[in-house]
Amino acid sequence: MKKTVIALGLSLGLSSFAFAAPAKDAKAAAPDAGLVTVKGEVLDMACYLDHGAKGAEHAQCAQTCIKSGLPVGLKADNGKTYLLIAEHTPVNQMLADYGGKTVTLRGKEAQRDGFNLLENVELVK
Fold first, then answer.
1. Which residues make Cβ contacts (< 8 Å) with residue 27, sequence separation at least 6?
2. Contact 36, 109 (CB under 8 A)
3. Where are the domains of the chain?
4. 35-123 CATH
């Protein structure tokens, strides 16, 4: 009986190690999994949604609106418009000077109820 309990305990210990180890290795092997790279125009979402404002003629206003804290978006070359955020924080400070300009961004894409989100955004240079 004592040998059976020891064998069972050893078996459970080794099996839990076997299940835990691959998850760590899988993360290390694919740190960029789920990330997308998109190119497009940085928008202030308030003016874009309200009256379609975009482009070079709106760049100064977009920069002012983004600096004031209005939501930041990207009108991407892939036809989608994204709301942009960092890791659950605004990206206004990082992207304000790019309002009305074309940039390439990288982040995690999410979609729900017709809305597109690019989170954990970083500039690609």
1. none
2. yes
3. 1-31, 35-123
4. 2.40.50
